[in-house]
Amino acid sequence: MTQNSSRRILTFPAVHPSEDVSPAVLLQAVINICRIISTYSSKSFPSHNRIAREAIREIGSLLILFEDFQDHGSVLTESVVLCLSEIYVCLQKIQFLLEDCTREGARLWVLVQSKRVVDEFQLLIRSIATALDLLPLASMDVCVEVREMVELVAKQARKVKIGIDPDDKQTSMDVHLILSQFEQKIVPNSTDLKRLVTRLGIRSWTDCNREIRFLEEEMEKENSKENERQIMLLSILVGFMNYCRGVLFDVVDGPNVESTDIKYYSKMLDCLNPEDFRCPISLELMTDPVIITTGQTYDRSSIQKWLKAGNLSCPKTGEKLKSTELIPNLVIQNLIQQFLHNGGVTSSKPGNRSHDLRRTHVTRSSASGTEAMRMLAVFLVEKLSTGTEAERNKAAYEIRLLTKSNTLNRACLVEAGAILWLLNLISSKNPTTQHNTMAALLNLSKHSKGKTLIFESGGLDPILSVLRNGLKMEARQNAAATLFYLASIDEYREAIGKIPESLLALVGLLRDGTDHGKKNAAVALFALLRFPGNHQRAIAAGAIPALTNLLTSDTEDVVNDSLSVLAALAERSEGSNAVLREIEISSLVKMLISATSRAVKEHCISILVSLCVNGGPEVVSDMKKMPSLVQSLCLLLKEGSRMSRKANLLLGILCDRRKRSSTGMLVSSIRQELVIHLAAPSNKKFPLGLQMSNRASKVSGSETVSGSETSYGT
Fold first, then answer.
1. N or C: which end of the chain has fewer CB within 10 A?
2. Does the model's pTM come out above 0.85?
3. ARM repeats at which positions (predicted)?
4. CA-wise closest residue to 572 among 601, 533, 545
């Protein structure tokens, strides 16, 4: 039986039969589900083996009864149908329980929830017994043997008192003992630890990784409900399993992590428009998509504000809501995460804890998870420093996974000294090792102390070396993204720009990289342009021709990012002159008119305004000869947004809506308005809301660059 992936574990959304269902159809449905449950007799139960098999045995006996009903054509009276309906609901829930008890990746969680699982089994078995007691067997055409068997099953079900299996109790105690050792900063015995996870059926790196991924997914779901107690428990278990994965298993078996999911979602992404990932209310990228009763999807925070304002209709369709229930749209959430992953971006809004799986208050009860991570960090750094080539590669890979979205893990690994050893390893001649190492450094560069250690440890040169000559394109892409994070610090931005090879290497990636690489290179360039001295250097490195070539890309995000950097370069006279040499004004106007993306339109207007200011009267005169430009700008005035204000500014220039006595006064007036409307280069928007604040040098936390709403990751 295929597991219902949309159902949360240990939830039991049973479907009640409709009142008009025919008795024969209902009986067949009961028989079918009994047969499905009977197939679980051949499955392995890492925990709750006794009570699960007792339930399977009793339902196997019921199957004989119901098949007898069907074979003899027994008359199913209204009272019989009522009993069968109750039994059918109970059987669905038992099937869900059996699915959960045999689910790969959820073994530790099901063990930890032992009392809940056992209580649910007992409740359902007794509920079936109650329904059997009400079954009017005397008035039905069944043989004496079957009738006696049913009475026996009902009697046994009423008396069932199977508690938590003694083996499960011992395993739970062993888990708590290990957690206690972590809390007391005692390194657990690896042999005892291996024996423990083997009892749970966790026998390989992949098994262990499945457990971690499941626990992290559960944390995502609990975050949306702000269930701090469950989040803390899950956080502790993630720390426990991370330690087991890193310490107990020397070989990463099976395919690369998430490779199957990536291929699946990548196929789906090819058929979707990324604009569909924006909330219809806020027009921002959804971070917690939920479905309302009309079937429309919104970001949770936006639709909650709508409902709290007293609105009881769908904002998009106007249809009246049957209820205010919000159901997480896990499919869209996974697609958004994969979309961001493919673009080099991982969502990380401040205040949205769902993307920071361990950002909880560290109390005494959660200290075991924290200490487990610290011990694992020390273990991995030791492997980096003294291990074989294979051990160092595996350690780099573990660090890459651990630091992808987790601030605590980053802090522990930075504190343990991982950065210096990763920098030593980055020159490896093994392409996989270099890729894993560069990805790990990228993730650690998101940590405020990580940036400092990378820079002060002489990390710029080896990172630039990978950017230029990385053995894999993925490593080059990650090197560019790392420069983006380092460039959030003022002095590092200046230092990177003074190295001629840095801007040349980024321009090289713009030319020959994948779409992912081009996006990362563009973002890194944009960050470096926040230092004024880097503008001329970027122009000299050939940034503008390379960016211009990308404007014909089929990938909207690449076009948007390229325009954003061009807009930043055009704000200075030398940049405007270089843009005018490479791009026809008419091409920019056509792009503005034909673009469907608001961001692309806004960047086009910004460039045109800068060209007017820096290019002189001839440029203004050329634009005035394009009536389609004025018409397009007039349409944009209705938007009431920052883009409309920029459109109004450009219209003012073209229509001479100024009192002036000379061209110089006109330019001066426009420049004053540019300060208001165009702001600094640091306020340019990137796709899906990526925004670098003018507070970028004051990095807070390790998930974001300044106040930006997204962060680049591997």
1. N
2. no
3. 417-459, 542-582
4. 533
